[in-house]
Amino acid sequence: MQALDALREALPRLPARDHAFASDLLSQASRRGLTDKQMYWVRTLAERAGRKQPGAPVQLAAGCGRIVALLTKAAAHLKRPSIVLDSPLGPIRVAIAGSRSRYEGQVMVTSQERELLPGQDYPQARYFGRVTPAGQFMPGRDCTDAEGLGERLARFAADPAGEARTWGRLHGRCCFCNRPLRDTRSTEVGYGPDCADNYGLDWG
User: Fold this and answer.
1) Which strands sit side by side in the sheet containing 83-85, from one edge to the other?
2) Gap between the terminal Cα atoms of the chain
3) What is the pLDDT of residues 99-145, one digit of tens each?
4) Contact by Cβ (8 Å): 91, 85
């Protein structure tokens, strides 16, 4: 009962996508009750409404030219090139929006893993935001730390090879293909020779 009351109180603060789902749950609760799975989403939506809202756009000091250049070069060899980085919001995936997106050519930032989100029938990545051609990070619906995420992107844009090396040494995986680094040289550099060729980076 407390969870349902919390969701009713939080309803005006939910984004449109979650609002419709929450309204449907509340309607079902009053008619015939809810299953355990539905109650899970009642608690999840109520909690989400109380989270810190996305902040204002953040200007990246180094822009995003290097990130775009890396991904554009890799697109000549790979179908969907992307970069995995750590962040204040957990592991993120950075990629360039394709021709079907309204933000075609811009850098998109999502969660690395996909999960089943409210109102969806299949797992999706959380949308943290995008970087415009002018180097401005625009927080998305699931971003709760625009400044922290913008700072993380700026660090990578300023030194892609150095940040890729740090990630590889820390996690033992390549930030470009996410595969384990299996030999001494790749572990030292932070990525393998194939990714070095694909993304136009030095390897040795």
Assistant:
1) 58-59, 136-139, 124-131, 107-115, 92-96, 83-85
2) 62
3) 889 899 999 999 998 887 665 667 888 899 999 988 899 998 888 88
4) yes
How deeply is 200 buried, as exposed, middle or buried, from its count of CB atoms within 10 A (0-12, 13-18, 19+)? middle
Q: What 8-state DSSP symbol labels residue 79? A: S
Q: Where are the alpha helices (DSSP H) in the chain?
A: 2-10, 16-32, 36-49, 65-74, 146-158, 160-171, 184-189, 193-199
CA distance 95 to 106: 8
* Secondary structure of residue 126 in the 3-state scheme: strand
22: three-class secondary structure by DSSP: helix
| 126 vs 142: CA distance, rounded Å | 6
Cβ-contact 200, 73 below 8 angstroms:
yes
pLDDT of residue 11: 84
Q: Are 107 and 67 spatial neighbours (Cβ–Cβ below 8 Å)?
A: yes
Token pair in block for residue 202: 């030095």
Please state, as a whole number, how many other Cβ atoms lie within 10 Å of the Cβ of residue 105. 13
> Which residues does 139 contact at the CB level (< 8 Å), separation at least 6?
54, 55, 56, 57, 58, 128, 129, 146, 149
In the DSSP assignment, the letter for residue 12 is: G
